[in-house]
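The freezer alarm interrupted the setup, so I double-checked each line after restarting. Inputs confirmed:
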Amino acid sequence: MIFGAILAGGVGSRMNIPDMPKQFLPLGDKPIIVHTLEKFLTCGRFDCVYIGVHADWVTYMNDLVKKYTPSSADRVRIVAGGADRNGTILNIINDIESNYGEDEKNIIVTHDSVRPFVTIRMIEENIDAALEFGAVDTVCAAVDTIVSSEDGKVISEIPDRSKMYQGQTPQSFRISVLKDLYNSLSDDEKKTLTDACKICVVRDFPVHLVEGSITNLKITTTGDYKIAQAMLGCLKAED
Amino acid sequence: MINQVYQLISPKVFSIKYTDLSFSDKVIVRPEFLAVCHADQRYFLGQRDIKVLNQKLPMALIHECCGKVVYDPTGKLSVGQRVVMIPNTPIRKNDVIYENYDKGSYFLSSGHDGFMREFVELDSDRVVAYDNVDPRVAAITEFVSVGVHASTRFDLIAHQNRDRIGIWGDGSLSYTVANILKSRFPESKICVVGMDKRKLSHFSFVDETYLSTDIPENFEVDHAFECCGGEGSYYAIEDVIKYINPQGTLMLMGVSENKVGINTRMVLEKGMTLVGCSRSGRADFEKAVELMENEDFQRRMKVIIFEDEPVRSIGDICRVMANDLTTPFKTVFKWDI
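Predicted 3D structure, all chains:
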């Protein structure tokens, strides 16, 4: 079976809007996360689309699903998020296994709720590649030269730009592979994880690449939010 | 959800417009294969009058397209059902005037965004389901439906002497009309007049082909279809008037940017009927799908289809449009955006 997993566990502290996580901010006529959910629901290959959201916002998210996607509500499940991103993914996997059982072939397509500009092409290619290879990351070839610095003061290294990519989402996995690799990590190794693909990379499990897009923007800061509004033609002068 | 619309903003320049698309009372379709029409090329190359370009751009091109249903609020079409999409959009029901000529009807890719979009939302009567057609062929259903429309009107208007029907032109439209006429009027002899021997050689299923420079003096047809357009319209119409039998019907199908001189003295003398035909409506699409489900008909259409590499970016769109200029017939491509 094929599952979507929209990750919305964070509380959005970086945007200085303390009362509402950023994925619930309006973009045009609806919250950012609803745009993302609708795009996932256009993919008929998903048996179920999960949303992992902070426990305090589960009821609110439920209301949004009923309001904006009532005809597809039976394909959506909402799960309380974990302590971090991978914790949220594992909570979703636990729910999948309790409700649908375990199957070696099950795959999960994880995605940031605050990337509403994801395209159906990226989702479809994630599914195809996850079915074939077991682990997939969506990336965008680096446009700017990447500079690395150990101390933040001087350049340590300038890697070959042609080999540099920026990681986006979706990130997709065969659930059995992701679980086994994660469980094999020590607590110290788990602390180094910045995203789910790193679980595979740490254990040398090959992660295949799907072409993302610079427009697959992650809305993290107020500036990103304004760019997203401008892209959709809904940035007002007072914004 | 956020939808991507690939608009031509000026000749050869595309830009992505982002729009909000909701799950509402409309059917949502994911385009699968698209086909290029001469009309798209005229916008792409900037060959329309500058006033027209200024008025109609920015606009998404392409009105020949098939896709898969991702959402149907009526529940009539299941998710994943393959459909062809009708670009003509009437604003009222009219029992006398065809929907493609009715006042107020508009056309997607002429003043309204065409099908170069991530998703297309349409009223449920603007999609026609199909099953037994290769989607590469289904992509040109609109093109076939235009021929169906002309042949339907021909059947209603032309007198019953239909022994020989002439088609002027040797391009995709002529080929498609010939295929349709051969299928709908099997008793009639279909004669095609063209300018290119190589292109005429594709018309394996018609009864006679002639080079326009080599038409026998005693050549005659009962009725005719003009499928040239452009500069060729004048010469084709001139020929038809010369070779058509009294009270013959001429179906005009080729688009010309310039005014075309017509020998009205002879039109009057022969009592001819000239019928303008453009675009098509739902009934024509349904008939086109029915025709294409016939294996022979479909195989013949495949002969004039060139499949270009899939399109994943704006650069790919420009590549397809450029490649289309170098191929003699229809260019079809997978929409992978």
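Quick read of the result. The first strand of chain B starts at residue 2 and ends at 10.
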